[in-house]
Amino acid sequence: MAIPSLLSLIFFFLFLTSTLISSSPVEDPELVVQEVHRSINESRRNLGYLSCGTGNPIDDCWRCDPNWASNRQRLADCAIGFGKNAIGGRNGKIYVVTDSGNDDPVTPKPGTLRYGVIQSEPLWIIFARDMVIQLKEELIMNSFKTIDGRGASVHIAGGPCITIQYVSNIIIHGINIHDCKQGGNAMVRDSPGHYGWRTISDGDGVSIFGGSHIWVDHCSLSNCVDGLIDAIMGSTAITISNNYMTHHDKVMLLGHSDSYTKDTGMQVTIAFNHFGEGLVQRMPR
Ligand SMILES: *[C@@H]1O[C@H](CO)[C@@H](O)[C@H](O)[C@H]1NC(C)=O
């Protein structure tokens, strides 16, 4: 598939199955698609001379609020498509990342991003200042977390990046994810009560493995070892929106194998992304 650079595309992908698979949260995907179109139409109707609207229903949902920074959790109500019900850390406490270094994969230190993402309770994670976070191992997230980079320039770069494995309700917004490397052959904590041995990872920007209710919005992603965003092994109920992707070979993989039948029920919405320069293939595959 040849994709010209600097082309904004809206794709609505439906992966349907003739049999009802329990991992599919939506039985009538056409209704979800109609709802997406309706919200886009609605946003466009509100474009006006004195309106702050852009016609992008996700952005218009929160950016028109001048006090968005004190109403951060409202973002959780702004998704469209199959990942719409991802609540992330909504109704949880705000957790502020103050420490960009000191990554300890087994005993994370309070104040680091890793300490926030492994917790059991819902958390809305924000950043005290601009920072570059170079992780030593994959960042293995626990359920009900939002990583909200608004208001700061946050890079997760130069080491292993984000892994969303067998968890649900994750929102990742406004993070620069790039130059992701493989991690592994190491112990990594995934919750306050558990850590385990990780084999060598793919080196994805965001790896979704058996994850559901996931929303990745307004991230920039580039130059990783494997995929920028890969969703495999029964992952579903995902929205990938407003991301800016550049300089990368295998951009996006949705399901790794035709013979893995659980993925025939995968439901993903891909909308308002910018497939930019220097991309090679899988946009998506
Ligand atoms: C959205 O607007 C287009 C163009 O006006 C129209 O064809 C379509 O039916 C509308 N869709 C919905 C779901 O409102």
Features:
285 residues; mainly beta; Pectate Lyase C-like; 13-stranded mixed sheet; 5-stranded parallel sheet; 3 helices; binds 2-acetamido-2-deoxy-beta-D-glucopyranose
What does this structure look like?
- There is one protein chain.
- The chain has about 280 residues and is mainly beta.
- The protein has a single domain (about 10-30, about 85-275), classed as Pectate Lyase C-like, CATH 2.160.20.10.
- It contains 3 helices and 22 strands.
- Strands 1, 2, 3, 4, 6, 7, 9, 10, 14, 15, 17, 18 and 21 form a 13-stranded mixed sheet that branches.
- A hairpin with a 2-residue loop joins strand 11 (about 185-190) and strand 12.
- The longest helix is centred in the N-terminal third of the chain and has 17 residues, at about 30-45.
- It is globular and about 55 Å long.
- Residues about 1-20 have low confidence and may be disordered.
- 2-acetamido-2-deoxy-beta-D-glucopyranose binds next to helix 1.
Question: What is the element layout, followed by pairings?
Answer:
Elements: E1 7-14, H1 29-45, H2 57-63, E2 93-97, H3 113-117, E3 123-127, E4 131-133, E5 139-140, E6 145-148, E7 154-157, E8 162-165, E9 168-173, E10 176-178, E11 186-191, E12 194-198, E13 206-209, E14 212-217, E15 220-222, E16 229-232, E17 236-241, E18 244-246, E19 248-250, E20 252-254, E21 267-275, E22 279-281
Parallel strand pairs: 2-3, 3-6, 4-7, 5-8, 6-9, 7-10, 8-13, 9-14, 10-15, 13-16, 14-17, 15-18, 16-20, 17-21, 18-21, 19-22
Antiparallel strand pairs: 1-21, 11-12
2-acetamido-2-deoxy-beta-D-glucopyranose is lined by residues 34, 37-38, 41.
Organism: Camellia sinensis var. sinensis
GO biological process, one term: pectin catabolic process
GO molecular function: metal ion binding; pectate lyase activity
